[in-house]
Amino acid sequence: MKKTAVYARYSSDNQREESLQDQIGSCFVYAKANNLFIDPQHIYSDAATSGTLKERDGLNKLLQAARAHEFQVVLVDDLSRLSRMNAQMLIHIQELTFMGIELHSVADNLNTSDEESKLAYQLKGIINEAYIDDLRKKTIRGQLGQKLRGFFLGEKLTDSYPNRMET
Asked: Which CATH architecture does the domain made up of 2-130 adopt?
């Protein structure tokens, strides 16, 4: 049995904290079916943290333990949990592979030790990055629309500033 670490992440305060447990549970099911042993000391997570950020506490701890060769496999529920930025995801995969550590993505059914998966995880990384770019544009468009309708966004409201502008 290969010693295995798990990494889970959800991106915003609007999401449920239970998402971490859902992701970790999915990884446990996968590990059992694939004869992998998840070491409870090597379950890492980042809550309410964007996948576009390079520096994340849980991810940094995972990579530090990987560099110390404390496990042979890393499980993620989905590649987007590792990173929403394709270049950064590929750097993480390259570093893990260089250290002889496999990365398995449960929902994507991808495994970096399988040469046939190389194109698939690269394409998935591009899709994940395109998704976050599209989401960013739609969020900004929605915020602009709200502002044009007279709502204040992110500004501190005081008695002199009602929560809706006079039109």
From this structure: 3-Layer(aba) Sandwich (3.40)
